[in-house]
Structures are given as C-alpha cells and as structure tokens.
Amino acid sequence: MAVMYQAVYRRAxxxxxxLHSTYVRKMRYLNELxxxxxxxxxxxxxxxxxLFHNLSPFLQEVGRKYLVPQLSATEMKRILEKFKETEQWxxxxxxxxxxxxHIPHFALxxxxxxxxxxxxxxxxxxxxxxxxxFVVDEKDFPLLASAQALLRWHDSHQYCSKxxxxxxxxxxxxxxxCHASGITYYPQxxxxxxxxxxxxxxxxxxxxxxxxxxxxxxxxxxxxxxxxVEETVRREVAEEVGLEVESFWYSASQHWxxxxxxxxxxxxxxxxxxxTEISMNSLELEAARWFDLEETVEALKRDHRxxxxxxxxxxxxxxxxxxxxxxxxxEWVKEQASRTA
Length: 341
Ligand SMILES: NC(=O)c1ccc[n+]([C@@H]2O[C@H](COP(=O)([O-])OP(=O)(O)OC[C@H]3O[C@@H](n4cnc5c(N)ncnc54)[C@H](O)[C@@H]3O)[C@@H](O)[C@H]2O)c1
Ligand SMILES: [Mg+2]
Prior knowledge:
Pfam families: NUDIX (PF00293), NUDIX-like (PF09296), Zn_ribbon_NUD (PF09297). It contains 9 helices and 16 strands. By secondary structure, it is an alpha+beta fold. α1 crosses α2, α5 (about 130-135) runs antiparallel to α6 and α8 crosses α9. The longest helix is centred in the N-terminal third of the chain and has 34 residues, at about 1-35.
C-alpha cells in the first residue's frame, strides 16, 4: 500500500513540477518579449496573428461554430503584400500571449484596409465584439476580450495627455512613451465591484433601462478613486438599493471589455434579514427585487429568446455563462441548495 501511495505521489509531484516549470517558463518568456524590443521584433517573424478591423475580431463560421483563426507570420506577409502594404504593418501588432511551446500570439487591427476585401480573401467576417464574445468557444473569450481591450487602449492613447505630442508604443505593446515629457503610459482597466446581495434565503437582482428586456443581474459599480473594494461594495449597495451590507466575501474576478476595460471583482454580500426593504435609485435602475431560490433556478434555465411570452412581455432571465454575474448567481444557488438539502 505504502509503495503504491509513493508511486502515485511521485507521479503527481513530477506532473506538478512539469506543469509548474512550463507555466513559469512561459511567463518569463512573455515578460522578456515585453521588455526587449529587438527580441519581440524577432518573435513577430515566427508568431501567429489574430486579426481585427476597427476593433471587431475576425471570425470564421464553420458549421454551427464560430472559430477565431490565427494567421501565421507567412500568411500575414502574403495578405499584406496582396493589399500592397509593407511588412511594417506587423509593427502595429500587440502581444497577447503565447503557447506552451513559446509561439507568441499577436493581435493586429487592419482597420485602414478594405474590410470586405480581407473578408473574402480570408473567408470569414469581422464581427462586432458584443456578438463575438457570446458565440465563440468559452476558451477563446478571454483572449478576444483582452486583445480587443489592448488594441482599443492603443487606439485611444496615441497622444500624451500632458504635452499633446504623439506617444510611441514599445514593440510588444505593453506600454507607450512620450519622448517629449518622458512619461510612460501603461494599459489600464477600471476596477468594478459586482455584488450579489442575499438576505439569507433570497438574492437581489436588478435591471438598468439599457439592458435587454427581461434581463436581471447583480448590482455593479465602479470603484471611486481611493476606495477599497469593501468600501465600494457597501457604497454601491447603499446607493443603488438603499440597503446596508453586513458582511461580504470575494468570489472571483474577470476582465470585461465592454464598453471599456473593467476588472470585475465579484462578491457575495449579506444584509440583515430584518432590513430588506428595497429603496431603489431610479436614476440608475429600472427595477430591483428579491428572487427566491425556486425563481432563481427557473430564470437560470431561460435565455433572451425563451423568456419571451405570447403577450410580448419577458420573464426574468440572467446574463449568459460568459459573464461573471452568471457565475455569482450559480454559486448562490448551489450554496442555498446545499443548505436546504
Ligand atoms: N461581466 C458582468 O457580469 C457584468 C455585470 C454587470 C456590469 N458589468 C460591467 O460593469 C461596469 C459598471 O457597471 P455599472 O454601469 O453598474 O457602474 P456604476 O453603477 O458605477 O454606474 C455607471 C456610472 O458611473 C460613472 N463612472 C464612474 N467611474 C467610471 C469609469 N471609470 N468608467 C465609466 N463610468 C464611470 C459614470 O457616470 C457611469 O454612467 C459596466 O461596464 C458593465 O458593462 C459587467
Ligand atoms: Mg451600477
């Protein structure tokens, strides 16, 4: 028995070491690409490229699936030659990751070239990010989201906000520098707290007027400058529904690219069971109410289409699984179900 345990343990720890060293080596490689311009320029000649056109990612519809194709450096060169563009275009690309085998991945926006001509050449289409995020395979979601956010950041930070002079990107695209002032700009995300409030047996979900009809989600809000996550949770819940948070705990986080880069920090919060009367802030919200476990489980089964009723009204439904709000709601349901079991 002891021998068997040792063999299993040895196999597990060697697997851990292998995984660990692959990960560490990969992170070190990416860091080197960000820090060393000539190393990164060299890597562009053997990398793969994800294409965008005015910030819409290039997708290929194959059967019922939407794939996110990667073009090799050779293919990229061929396309640019075909459109009579020089290889200098490659320098506009930004580093977005690499494979375990250290093949670097770049994103490139071909916004200045004719969209339909590239689409017919490459047999696919540039798709609005809002749609693309929800039709691609789940594993491609973070990649598309971060690539688009990074390209958008570069597009909107071409000039120094102090001197008005043009800024230059480093080859990897991990920063931009204004040579007149010496200021370095780094890509940024705005921290946002998203909180699923519960009174112990129900959860609180709300909707803004701009949401698709029938969609409810957890409360969210940008962190004010200088605020801690704890302070934002308490303030947002007080501001939006007039309740006082008693305790809260962190669940998970997610980068959300729409409408501009946010770091979503997802939390569960508890309010006192005796103080659950909602006083909704109608400047921001259109509806806010408590959902019991059964109603929450039912709404989780619906989507935008299936929630539509014959009279044109909509039953409540929640954001799809790609959104961290969905994860919070599922987590709450699981916890409630295990409590009542
Ligand atoms: N992934 C998800 O599951 C999920 C769910 C809900 C919301 N979100 C995202 O969270 C973000 C914030 O949600 P919200 O609208 O409830 O926030 P919010 O309650 O803070 O209200 C938005 C308002 O805050 C102000 N604001 C303050 N700082 C801002 C900043 N850095 N950028 C933009 N506006 C700022 C603006 O006046 C804006 O109209 C949105 O971008 C939304 O897309 C994601
Ligand atoms: Mg809000």
